[in-house]
Amino acid sequence: MSYIITVATFISIQAIVAYGLNIIVGYAGQISLGHAAFFGIGAYSAGLLATKAGLSFWAALPLVVAICAVIGIICGLPSLRLKADFLAITTIGINFIVESLFLYVPFFGGALGLGGIPRVVFLGNKLKGGEFLTLCLLFLALVMFLSWWFSRSWMGLACISLREEETAASSMGVSPVKFKLVAFVLGSVIAGIGGALYAHQMRFIAPSDFGFPVSVMLLSLIVLGGMGTFWGPLVGAIILGSLPELARPLMEYRMLIYSLLLLGMIRFQPQGLLGEESVVSRIIGRHVGGDRS
Questions:
Q1: HSE-up of 128 (CA within 13 Å, CB side)?
Q2: Which of 23, 69, 124, 289 is most buried (most C-beta within 10 Å)?
Q3: Which CATH architecture has domain 2-292?
Q4: Would you kindly state where each structural domain of the chain is located, as residue ranges?
């Protein structure tokens, strides 16, 4: 039972981070292949504030959000001037730079990583197992509500219009710089929250936990589930979070599997499992239509 709880906890955290990426890629239409960087920034910020400053998870969380927002702005502004392949390369570069800082700067623990991160304490009780899973699920529900609200707010609608046709949206007064930056910062902050939960779950983090393969995995989650859909990141996290546990002999080939999955979905199901033109959506629509008739 404890094993299932642990797997469910990691799936919840991955889903949180994936919802942040979905805002950037799915709603705003920006290519991001370095989202693990902000996942790591959130984790290391929470870990350092807990181990070096002695702050609790709750006291550190607003600072983690602020740090991720500021770094999101710093990284987002240069990226807004780039498109397509150049934007993808830039985000990959951000991921490698952040990972290198964690690896080579002694303040972050270097290659030895950062340990001694305490458990989350709530009302004097250290949360672990099912209690910590409940906390992660509450944060996931909050992030899902935030994603739902964003997709229906004027900011989200502006981002979606820029994704569909940037030139036409700009001619109607929608600022690409303003709204893409809002999406980038919001996605970075959500990834940071997921990172903070991850740090307190693992209690030891290392630079390799936030490398480029993790960014590919996160992108695979939303591509599989459906970019720009509400349930897509959650469905992708459940499927890809469960498969490695069901097929442990294939763990060494995880990167290959993610890459093949990305290529296959982009080629045959670019809308993902839950997209408007996906096989799943057509099957559901056929059954719903049949019931009505």
A1: 7
A2: 23
A3: Orthogonal Bundle (1.10)
A4: 2-292
